[in-house]
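Bumping my old thread because nobody answered last time. Still need a sequence for this structure:
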């Protein structure tokens, strides 16, 4: 019989890798299902769109036909200050019949919410494996899928598919289907199944964009969306920030101040970051950047009105960065 003595009412699940966050949440769900089905006792929210009073209300609902409810809030790094404070107040005196899982990339240790979870719950900070650790991690993932491979084969898979654990796990599923009844993975199997899709960093895409290489940016955008599962909303938010910083650099240049140190102090950037921004800003006029910033709002509006936001985003790239 399952033991609930060490089950906490609060879990803060942090990792910069989606795979590790998902893995931790899945394990928590499996553990709670030992006490009874979660069919009528599970509520899930995305922090960016959630009504946090509704989240707190869901935490205070009594479970049905099982001892516990599970409430999951994902993307907590996108919470605003008021929402975080509301959850922190709840976390000071959480319901004993609800497990609240707060899931995200980061949470400031100095925040009231983090401290409340430390006091009344558990923080699960899942660090991504280092390059040195990654081959053994892939070997372990393969074992979980009933496959065996050497570290050499694991490294070949990493070279082909990149370092994103979600992509690597999906790649192993493809290899398993390819092998059929065979369980041992060889280097040749990796080459036969996995295309060369090494992870494209988001900043490679942004770099191509602000170097006015629209063709390269669109190719990288396709990889980010189709292979790595990135969302237009996140990418457009990052591009918006870069646009504003680039615009600040452009304004300083227009004023005759070309000092990287001034820009670094203004934006609280390191010197090399300020120099890179200046190089990008020199490729645009202030007017071009302002128009691009205004038009980018159409991309963000598209996601709320049913339009194809990817198509709108690609059109915006061609209009402003070609």
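Sorry it took so long. Here it is:
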């Amino acid at each position: 019989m399952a033991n609930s003595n060490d089950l906490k009412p609060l879990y803060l699940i942090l990792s910069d890798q989606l795979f590790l966050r998902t893995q931790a949440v899945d394990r928590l769900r499996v553990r709670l299902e030992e006490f009874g089905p979660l069919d009528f006792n599970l509520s899930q929210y995305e922090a960016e769109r959630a009504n946090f009073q509704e989240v707190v209300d869901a935490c205070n609902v009594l479970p049905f036909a099982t001892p516990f409810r599970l409430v999951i809030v994902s993307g907590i790094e996108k919470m605003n200050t008021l929402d975080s404070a509301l959850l922190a107040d709840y976390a000071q005196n959480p319901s004993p019949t609800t497990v609240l899982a707060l899931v995200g990339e980061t949470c400031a240790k100095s925040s009231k919410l983090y401290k409340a979870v430390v006091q009344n719950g558990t923080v699960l900070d899942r660090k991504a494996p280092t390059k040195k650790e990654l081959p053994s991690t892939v070997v372990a993932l393969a074992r979980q899928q009933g496959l065996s491979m050497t570290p050499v084969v694991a490294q070949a898979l990493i070279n082909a598919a990149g370092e994103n654990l979600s992509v690597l796990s999906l790649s192993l599923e493809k290899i398993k289907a390819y092998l059929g009844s065979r369980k041992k993975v060889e280097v040749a199997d990796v080459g036969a199944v996995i295309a060369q899709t090494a992870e494209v960093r988001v900043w490679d895409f942004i770099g191509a964009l602000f170097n006015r290489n629209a063709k390269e940016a669109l190719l990288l955008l396709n990889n980010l969306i189709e292979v790595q599962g990135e969302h237009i909303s996140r990418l457009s938010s990052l591009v918006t920030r870069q646009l504003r910083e680039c615009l600040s650099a452009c304004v300083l240049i227009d004023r005759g101040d070309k000092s990287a140190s001034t820009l670094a102090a203004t934006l609280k950037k390191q010197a090399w970051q300020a120099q890179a921004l200046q190089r990008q800003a020199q490729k645009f006029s202030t007017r071009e950047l302002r128009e691009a910033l205004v038009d980018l709002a159409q991309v963000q509006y598209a996601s709320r009105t049913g339009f194809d936001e990817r198509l709108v985003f690609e059109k915006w790239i061609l209009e402003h960065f070609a």
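The mean pLDDT is 87. Let me know if any region looks off to you.
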